[in-house]
Amino acid sequence: MTSEITRINPAQLHATPGYHHITVVEAGRTAFLAGQCPLDPSGELVGPGDLDAQIDQVAANAVAALNAVGARPEHVVRSVIYVVSDDAAVLGAVWWRLTESVIGPAFTTASTLLGVARLGFSGQLVEVDLTAALPG
C-alpha cells in the first residue's frame, strides 16, 4: 500500500517560499529520522565554520538515511531545519541552498526553519530533522 500525500496552502494563510502549510498523509508507514548532522561516515564534523559545506553534508546524510528505508525526498512530510544564527539573511540562504540540494523536494512539505544558539556538536552550524511517509 502506498501512502497518499496531500500538500495544502489555505487561501487564508500567507504565501510561502516553496513549502506547504499543511501535509496530510493517508495510511501507510512513517519513518522519523534523527536530526541529520554535518558529520562524515567516521563521525568527524565536515566544514568547521563553512555553512555551505555543512549544508551539503547534511543533505547527503539525509538522502542516505531516506534511502535506507526505501524513501526519497518526495516522501518527506515534515521538516525542521536548525541553524546556528539569528540573522534572517543567513536563515534564508540556508533555506535556498537546501531547497536547491539533492533533498530539495523534502522542503515542499510542512517545514519549519529555526535560528538557534547552539547545536549538539562543537562547530556544528546546521541540522535537519525529517519525517517521511514510506512508499508501499
From TrEMBL:
Family: Belongs to the RutC family.
Gene Ontology cellular component annotations, sorted alphabetically: cytosol
Pfam families, per the entry: Ribonuc_L-PSP
Protein name in the entry: Enamine deaminase RidA (YjgF/YER057c/UK114 family)
GO molecular function: deaminase activity
